[in-house]
Specification:
The chain has 94 residues and is mostly helical. The protein is rod-shaped and about 125 Å long. It starts with a helix and ends in a 6-residue tail after the last helix. The model has no long low-confidence stretch (mean pLDDT 83).
């Protein structure tokens, strides 16, 4: 085989390798793009879930505060009522 033929084979092999490398690079870029998009979507879903949990926590805290407030209001009315019974009517409720 002549030197010219061997140089042509090397040149053809190099061109083939460059094409495969370009295809691999393109595929890798596509994969990284897809992974990045998937991560962004996952982050958005997780942020929405965290926001939802925060909303539910705030709602629960508001309900708890309202319930405690009602309990304290009722407790004060009962205490006042018992004091009235003891003082005004002479009943011993204790």
């Amino acid at each position: 085989m002549s030197l010219k033929q061997r140089m042509q084979e090397v040149s053809d092999s190099l061109a083939s390798i460059e094409q495969e490398l370009a295809a691999l690079k393109s595929e890798t870029n596509d994969n990284f793009g897809r992974v990045g998009t998937d991560l962004d979507n996952t982050e958005q879903v997780l942020n929405a879930k965290v926001d939802d949990l925060g909303d539910r926590l705030r709602l629960g805290m508001n309900k708890l505060q309202a319930a405690v407030g009602k309990f304290l209001y009722v407790d004060k009315r009962i205490t006042v009522h018992f004091i009235f019974l003891e003082i005004e009517l002479g009943f011993d409720v204790g």
